[in-house]
Structure formats: C-alpha cells, structure tokens
Automatic annotation (TrEMBL):
One of its GO terms (molecular function) is oxidoreductase activity, acting on the CH-OH group of donors, NAD or NADP as acceptor. Keywords: Membrane, Transmembrane, Transmembrane helix. This is Uncharacterized protein. The lineage of its organism: Eukaryota, Viridiplantae, Streptophyta, Embryophyta, Bryophyta. The gene is LOC112276431. It holds the Pfam family adh_short. Belongs to the short-chain dehydrogenases/reductases (SDR) family.
Amino acid sequence: MYFQFSWIVIAVLATLCISLLWPKKPFMSNLRGKHLFLTGASSGIGLEIAKQALREGAYLTLVARNGEKMGIIAKSLLKQLECSPEQVLVKAADVTNYKEISKAVRESFDWRPIDILINNAGLTRSGFMEDFTVEDINVVVQTNLLGSVYPLHAVLPQLKLRSRDHPISIVFLGSLASLCWLYGNGVYTGTKYAVKGIAENLRLELAPYNMRVNLVCPGFVKTAFLDSVDNEEELTSGMGVASFYNRKSAQSPETVAKIALSGIKRGTFLITTTFGLGPILVILTRGFAPSESFLLNLVEALLAGPARIISYFSQAKIYWSLRSIHRKYNHDSQ
C-alpha cells in the first residue's frame, strides 16, 4: 500500500515538473494595446484589474453605476500610474438594465474594438434563507446573473467578427462558490453555479472561433463583503466550519487580479486563485470540462480518489460542527 502510494506521489511530482518545464504558448502574450471592457470597476477586484492592465499598456472601458465616482477614480488612476487619458473611457451603466449596458458596450466598441470582456460586477446578501427579503433575492440574482449575460449578449456578434483577426477573451468572475457552497449565502451560491454553467456552455459555442472563455474563481477576498459577514457572529462561525472562512487568510484584491490576468493571458478556462482548497474543489467539480493541459488532467485523475475520500470525512465533521453552532445560538427558538 505504502509502495503504491509512493509511486503515485512520484508520478504527480514528475508531471508537475514536466508541466513547468514545458509551458504552453499563451493565448495573449501581453495586454499592451488590448482593449478591456470591465464592469464593476470602481472597487475591489475590478479596480485592481484596471490598475494592472493600465500598467501593461492596455486601454480600458470602466463601467460602474455611479459614473461620477468612476470618473474621479479613473483620473486618480491615470495620475498615479502616469498614463495617458486616452487609455480610459468611463461609462455609467447598471448591468441589470439591458438598455443601459448595451448602449455602454456599443459606445465602447465604437471607441475602440474590444479584445477582453470582463464581467466582474457582482454582490451578495449574507444571511439564512428565511431572513432574505424578496428585494435581496432579486438584486443578487439580477446583478450576478443578468449582469454577466447582458454585456455579453449585447456585443457577442461583434466579438465573433473581430476574432477572425484578433484573439478575444470573455471573462466571468465566478467564485469558489461556483464550485462549492458558501454557507449563509444560498442565493449568491446559486447565481455563481449558474455563471459556471453559462461559461462552460459558451466555451463550447465559441470553439470554432479564435476566442477563449475564462471563469475566475477566487476564494475570500479582502473587500467590503467581509465587513458585513463579520457583523453576524453565528453566520461567521458557520462559514468558518462549512466554508473554511478565516479573515486572516483572505486574499488581497491585488493578488486575485494578478492571478486572474495571468490565467486570462494563458487562455485558461477555470482559474482559481487560492492554494489548497481551490485546486481540490476543481478536481472534485470540474465535471465534463477537462483542463486544457493533458498533464494537468493526469494529475487531477491521480488525486481525484484521495480528494473524494477527504471530502466525505470533511462533510461529516462539518455537519456535526454546524449542529453544535446551531445549539449554541438556538437560531429558531420559540
């Protein structure tokens, strides 16, 4: 048994070494001169993507609901990075309003043909399912789901035409909640699962074109979302055991943006930004959409069995811990 396990470990390590020494040709070598259309650009991951893309010499259309605020942020970015004002176009649009976002996309494409469409806008409302208001449910579903589909639907025909001569990337900001539950965020989790399904299907539809679909799945990120979570003690405790939440280990938006842009340039479909949990969830939930790399598929196949066993025992512990937390806080006491 030990001998067989040793050979598995050796095979995995050898495969990883070969993968590192035999890099795949990137889909895009760099972002210089590329035009990125970016929603949810005023803060968090979106703002950091904008910063790093500008540093590489990209052109940006920055979209946010508050155009005045976005304009101020854009001017600050240009001054900080010493970039030309001609590199940035600011558009005010609500991604849940098809008329507004389609107008923004058309005007952006007229300004400069789009090379990378990044559907970053998203939000959540944390809480137990029965505590959600109908308004909470609607805003999460509309922003995360319709906000990911509307910009794409408005510009996809033009992107297909442009792909004849230029590589095109369509990026969805998912989450580890696209691969596994996020405790206390049921509606959010449902929308992120849906985004994963849309991305997988679109990947097949665009196979005949010089286009790539990227699904970026970060874990916990140091944004305003964590502040709202930490105000709910029972919810925070449940997230700690069921979703491995630990604010101290949350990633910075800068780190997530760097990993995301690197994966986009490589043409990677499923991009996780966390080490440990992220790759394990990919192995357990990739489904019928294999990695672009044969070697990585081999590694995942070797680790799939152990990962499934780990998940079995982990879930048993999670259920036991959640029952203990429930008794402590007596959530549904009369």
